[in-house]
Amino acid sequence: MAQSCPHCAAPLPDTWDAFCGSCRNPLPETEAAQPTGAADVVTEPGATQPAEPHTDDPTARFWQTLTEITPRPTVTRVLVAINLVIFGLMGASGLSLNQPSPAELLKWGADFGPSTLNGEWWRALTCMFVHIGILHILMNMWVLSATGPLVERMLGNAGFLVAYLVSGLGGSLASLWLNPGVVSAGASGAVFGIYGALLGLLQRQRTSIPPAALTGLKNSGLGFLAYNVFFGLTQPNIDLAAHAGGFVTGFLCGLVLSRPFTPAGVAARPTRNFVTGFGGFVVITVGLTLLSLAPPKIVLIDRELERCEELDKRARHFIRTGHERLSRGDLDGKAFAETIERSLLPEWREARTRLAALRGTSSHDDAHLTLVLDYMQLCEEEWTLYAEAVRTGDDRKAQEAANKHKLADALVDKIRTR
């Protein structure tokens, strides 16, 4: 009766191998023994013993060495579990499992330049565990499950965790630098980093890794690449900058973390892990700080829009309360008009000038900015006419101001629907 792997239930071939050919997990001695029907070696009349294993197989020796120095890929399994649990919680909260909105993703910690670079720095980390739909998380977790165990055994559990997190943060930093206006989420940057780390390992340990040991990664790697290329070309908000940033960061991590698969190499892992983790943290922190001090235009636009919104609230409150006091007769019209012209309008014009200088980020941002700037222009005209009407008692000016007010309110509805 044919034997099967106790880990993945795949049938075992009629040849000795200490590792399953499908999942590459080590087989217990009782299950890696000579399969039923294999030839016996006769040592003396009436006595037999199992044939010796093929110890000359470099791939089997390689996997045996990795399993000895890193027995279990625990970190890979924990990362997959965390991502799945968070996605399940997102779904349980009512978030769409197929195409969640940017607003929903932001509530769960997605990365977004105007938020991340405006004090919410933690989004650069949390975005790695938030996914944009079920296909997104299934693809990322499939590739992580296929690639992670090999790379984790090559780097060690702690080294793999360092490479994963630093790569993900590197992808977030690249996204904030090149695509600050995109709501970015997913483990893709970190997963690309694992492939980058593998490439870095191959550069340093090319003579220690049999090519056959990497054969199983081809399908998952090609599938992952095809998925990301397809969506990158067909979907407008795919963050290719995060993918590239994660890959490059992972490659650098792989170069630093790479050590021979020997007892001496394993003993040197903690130092390498600390250097890589601490160095990566410092570089990324400095990068985030510099971007916060000199943010991209989209971040400046968001900040300026918030300032304009606050100024708009104060201005309208000032006009409304002033009008009520004029109606009661406890405010002089000329003094009120001078306050509008000397205090309110100059500050409003300065805000509009600053916002107008930020045009050119993208066609979408320009369209939104144009509406806001048109609104601010109408408000300026309204308050100028209102001040003249209050000073002179001109009803025609008052009516013109009321018409400007209606046009401005109509633009507010358009701005809110964008």
Spatial strand sequence of the major β-sheet: 1-2
The largest pleated sheet is described as: 2 strands, antiparallel
Mean pLDDT: 81
Tell me the distance between the termini: 67 Å
Count of discrete alpha- or pi-helical segments spanning 4 or more residues: 16
> Radius of gyration, Cα only, in angstroms?
32 Å
Keywords:
mainly alpha; elongated; 67% helix; two-stranded antiparallel ribbon; 418 residues; 2 strands; 2% strand
What does this entry look like structurally?
With 418 residues, the chain is mainly alpha-helical. Helices cover 67% and strands 2% of the residues. The protein has 16 helices and two strands. A two-stranded antiparallel ribbon has the order 1-2. Helix 6 packs across helix 9, helix 7 crosses helix 8 and helix 7 packs parallel to helix 12. It is elongated, with a radius of gyration of 32 Å. It starts with 40 loop residues before the first strand and ends with a helix. About 6% of the residues have low confidence. InterPro entries: Peptidase_S54_rhomboid_dom (IPR022764), Rhomboid-like_sf (IPR035952), Rhomboid_protease_S54 (IPR050925). It is a multi-pass membrane protein.
Helix/strand layout:
Blueprint (H helix, E strand, L loop, with lengths): L40 E4 L2 E3 L8 H12 L4 H19 L9 H6 L5 H4 L6 H4 L7 H22 L1 H22 L9 H17 L12 H18 L5 H18 L5 H5 L1 H25 L3 H32 L4 H24 L6 H30 L2 H23 L1
Antiparallel strand pairs: 1-2
Summarize the structure.
The protein is built from 16 helices and two strands.
